[in-house]
């Protein structure tokens, strides 16, 4: 063993493996800007898989032994390549991939057939065509540790279908792997443009006034409205507003609230830095709050921005109660103005929580029933179909007023609609009356007039009705329009 490799093993606390590991360190390069180390190690021959696993773990744990390294890459070569135990290395690589991405569980247990030294056939069921994409990642991982092999599929009609195997995978193992991955992702490294950093986070989004009046009051008390926050990027976009100015707009959200963040950029290098921002990255922002008339709300105009160098996987919530509850009152997006998620999302969450059943109770709607059936079919959870209906006692309610004994199909009648300044039937003023007269299922006459309410229409009313202020300002008052109607 070379002295340099021996020093590396001592550095990685692998002195006990010196007898088993024979080789030399070809290269150790350090990228100080990226805080990244690269090892190229040449071994005499492949190691027993348990010894190699300890060496590999040691290399990947380098950041624990030094404060100047955040990430490690490596490449292993051999003086005398030996593919005798390639099947063990294949299983080792597959297990590591499964730990990071549970979809590779589909390959576990498939037989391996050797065809010469450098070709492996994976014996796969009849529906295994999409597994071929996974083999590319396994080939890359094997090449990184010194094995140039070719993996291909041999289809076996008698093997159980992959879809059947995936359906039987223990869901708990998948969730635990995702949680472990999320925990590993908590090591966030922030990057900044021109090393402009934010020393201290003093506020949350909740601390920022959310209305124009509240912002004015805040400024009168504090003489300014400067804030430093940290939150997750939900969305990002850019828009060129002048020949040399780009407006970047981010939506940031923490556990309590969300806010727009705007940054005007003239420096093209800074634009490149901000353009690399992705949803689910964490971002630190220092800036001034101002009321934006374009969005009609308070936004944060950034002075300094830091962000993580990669998206952060959010922690996956778990139900750890010894006795799991069952949700018996659930509204999906099929409940108008009362639900936001699909029933599939709720079922997935209940499965993750290991609930035995879940009840659907949308308001006045059974639209989610088909999706509910599909989401729970062949799953270890019982669907409970329900609905909330509004009931009316017709004995106490006059739906129609006035007695009429004629046949509607043979009658002449008018259908009309009014638009008002408010949603309330008690407080709004009429601003438009429209009507059609029906005879023999045909429109025989129409009526449409605007009404002057002698007040300014709110932006909500203009958006809802499509009526412009000028249209009502030039209209007649209500009384002559009602007479004409």
Walkthrough of the structure:
- The chain is 27% helix and 29% strand.
- The protein has helices at 3-11, 49-60, 62-65, 86-100, 132-144, 162-167, 171-184, 212-222, 268-275, 343-352, 369-376, 459-465, 469-473, 478-484; strands at residues 23-31, 36-43, 71-78, 112-114, 119-124, 150-155, 190-192, 226-242, 245-253, 258-265, 282-292, 297-308, 357-363, 382-388, 412-420, 430-439, 442-450.
- The protein is extended and about 105 Å long.
- The termini are far apart.
* Beta-strand percent range: 25-35%
Mean pLDDT across residues: 85
Helix content: 25-40%
Tell me how many strands there are: 17
What coarse outline follows from CA principal-axis ratios? extended
Give me the secondary-structure category.
Answer: alpha+beta
Give unreliable regions as ranges.
Answer: 167-173, 182-186
Biggest sheet architecture: 5 strands, mixed, barrel
Fold topology:
Layout: H1 3-11, E1 23-31, E2 36-43, H2 49-60, H3 62-65, E3 71-78, H4 86-100, E4 112-114, E5 119-124, H5 132-144, E6 150-155, H6 162-167, H7 171-184, E7 190-192, H8 212-222, E8 226-242, E9 245-253, E10 258-265, H9 268-275, E11 282-292, E12 297-308, H10 343-352, E13 357-363, H11 369-376, E14 382-388, E15 412-420, E16 430-439, E17 442-450, H12 459-465, H13 469-473, H14 478-484
Parallel strand pairs: 2-3, 5-6, 10-12, 13-14
Antiparallel strand pairs: 1-2, 4-5, 7-12, 8-9, 8-11, 9-10, 11-12, 15-16, 16-17
Name its key features.
485 residues, alpha+beta, 5-stranded mixed beta barrel, 3-stranded mixed β-sheet, 14 helices, 17 strands
């Amino acid at each position: 063993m070379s002295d340099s490799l021996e020093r590396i093993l001592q550095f990685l606390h692998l002195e006990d493996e010196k007898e088993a590991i024979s080789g030399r360190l070809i290269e150790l390069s350090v990228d100080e800007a990226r805080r990244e180390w690269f090892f190229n190690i040449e071994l005499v021959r492949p190691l027993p898989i348990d010894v190699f696993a300890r060496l590999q773990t040691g290399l990947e744990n380098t950041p624990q032994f030094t404060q100047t390294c955040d990430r490690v890459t490596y490449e292993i070569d051999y003086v005398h390549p030996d593919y005798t135990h390639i099947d063990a290395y294949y299983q080792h690589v597959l297990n590591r991939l499964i730990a990071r991405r549970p979809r590779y569980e589909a390959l576990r247990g498939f037989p391996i057939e050797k065809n010469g030294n450098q070709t492996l056939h994976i014996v796969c069921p009849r529906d295994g065509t999409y597994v071929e994409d996974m083999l590319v990642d396994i080939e890359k991982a094997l090449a990184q540790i010194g094995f140039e092999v070719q993996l291909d599929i041999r289809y076996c009609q008698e093997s159980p279908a992959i879809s059947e195997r995936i359906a039987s995978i223990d869901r708990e193992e998948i969730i635990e792997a995702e949680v472990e991955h999320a925990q590993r992702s908590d090591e966030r490294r922030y990057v900044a443009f021109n090393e402009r950093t934010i020393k201290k986070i003093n506020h949350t989004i909740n601390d920022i006034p959310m209305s124009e009046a509240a912002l004015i009051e805040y400024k009168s008390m504090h003489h300014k409205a400067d804030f430093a926050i940290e939150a997750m990027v939900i969305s990002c976009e850019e828009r060129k507003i002048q020949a040399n100015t780009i407006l970047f707009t981010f939506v940031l959200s923490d556990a309590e609230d969300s806010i727009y963040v705007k940054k005007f950029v003239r420096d093209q290098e800074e634009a490149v830095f901000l353009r690399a921002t992705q949803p689910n990255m964490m971002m630190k922002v220092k800036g001034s709050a101002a009321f934006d008339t374009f969005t009609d709300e308070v936004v944060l105009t950034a002075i300094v921005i830091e962000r993580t160098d990669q998206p952060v996987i959010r922690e996956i919530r778990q139900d750890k109660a010894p006795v799991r509850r069952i949700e018996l009152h659930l509204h999906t997006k099929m409940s108008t103005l009362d639900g936001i998620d699909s029933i599939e999302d709720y079922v997935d969450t209940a499965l993750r929580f290991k609930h035995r059943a879940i009840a659907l109770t949308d308001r006045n709607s059974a639209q989610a029933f088909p999706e509910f059936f599909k989401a729970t079919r062949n799953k270890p959870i019982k669907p409970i179909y329900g609905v909330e209906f509004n009931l009316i006692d017709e004995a106490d309610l006059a739906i129609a007023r006035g007695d009429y004994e004629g046949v509607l199909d043979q009658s002449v009648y008018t259908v009309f609609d009014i638009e008002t300044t408010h949603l309330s039937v008690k407080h709004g003023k009429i601003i438009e009356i429209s009507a059609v007269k029906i005879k023999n299922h045909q429109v025989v006459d129409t009526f449409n007039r605007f009404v002057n309410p002698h007040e300014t229409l709110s932006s909500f009313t203009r958006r809802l009705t499509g009526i412009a202020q000028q249209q009502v300002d030039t209209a007649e008052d209500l009384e002559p329009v009602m007479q004409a109607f």
